[in-house]
Write a structure and sequence with these properties.
Blueprint: E1 5-8, E2 11-14, H1 18-41, H2 53-62, H3 73-104, H4 106-119, H5 128-135, H6 140-163, H7 167-175, H8 180-215, H9 223-232, H10 236-268
Helix pairs in contact: 2-10, 3-4, 3-6, 3-8, 3-9, 5-6, 6-8, 8-10, 9-10
């Protein structure tokens, strides 16, 4: 391999600095906005269906002070984030311990796996009719749908972390007479942390996507609800402003989780 080159799979090229990567990212964003603006400005797509980036940005700023569907944009976002946190925390609190236990105890694995495999392929949005029947437009419906999206990656990654614990560590602990409780807390859990953190990052993304789908149908506040109300009155700029808010919030969540993952890897001395 040549010096200064990296090779991953079929991709080969120079390793870019952080500033170069950010510059290329900015260039790509500028190109996207330019194409969007051109489609709107030249009337290739009617303005009522594709407002200009300036119109969407202006509406996005206005929504911070101007209520729509009963609330301002920050209030809608606050409602969405509250449901999101409840759903993801519930998925983590159930999925991680259950995944670790399934990876450690084969009997539990044999009991739970057939049920889990049957349920995890049901798309979170498919739970919407049940959520609407059980909870109406209350907070429980969106939490159920977020849980359905975030739970599988929490469990699967915790399970994988437990199953791939270094066997020599387990054997050494058993030879020293370590009890089950200490093996779980001092061997299983620390060895599984990287896999658990990776699962949380995936769960966070799926949970946020599931939340927006839920709010389109079973909510009386939130960004998804705001977009539905805007669509009903053909206010495309408001719909797209909501999409911008969803994207920026999701990006902020992912960046925060990346920083947390990087900090944890440094703390544990992992590569």
């Amino acid at each position: 391999m040549e010096s200064g080159r990296i090779k991953t799979g079929f991709v080969m090229g120079p390793k870019l600095s952080r500033s170069d990567a950010l510059g290329l990212g900015g260039l790509g964003l500028a190109g996207f906005l330019g194409l969007w603006g051109a489609l709107s400005f030249f009337g290739i797509v009617p303005v009522e269906f594709l407002p200009s980036p300036f119109a969407v940005g202006s509406r996005f700023i206005d929504l911070f002070a101007e209520p729509f569907a009963g609330f301002t944009l920050p209030q809608h976002l606050g409602s969405s984030l509250l449901r999101y946190l409840y759903g993801v925390l519930l998925a983590a609190c159930i999925g991680i311990p259950l995944g670790l236990a399934m990876g450690w105890f084969h009997l539990l694995d044999d009991i739970v796996t057939p049920i889990f495999n049957g349920l995890r392929f049901i798309a979170p949005i498919a739970w919407v009719p049940f959520a609407a029947l059980w909870f109406g437009t209350g907070i429980g419906g969106p939490i159920l749908i977020i849980f359905a999206g975030a739970f599988p990656p929490c469990l699967i990654n915790a399970y994988r972390g437990a199953r791939f614990v270094e066997p020599r560590l387990v054997e050494a602990a058993r030879m020293l007479g370590t009890n089950h409780g200490r093996m779980l807390t001092e061997i299983l859990l620390p060895a599984s942390v990287p896999s658990i953190v990776a699962g949380l990052r995936v769960a966070a993304g799926l949970g946020w996507q599931s939340l927006v789908g839920a709010e389109l149908i079973v909510a009386s506040a939130g960004v998804g609800f705001m977009m539905v109300q805007a669509q009903a009155s053909v206010q495309t700029t408001t719909v797209m402003a909501g999409m911008v808010a969803i994207g920026l919030t999701g990006l902020a969540i992912d960046v925060a989780l990346r920083q947390g993952e990087r900090w944890l890897h440094n703390r544990l001395g992992l590569d």
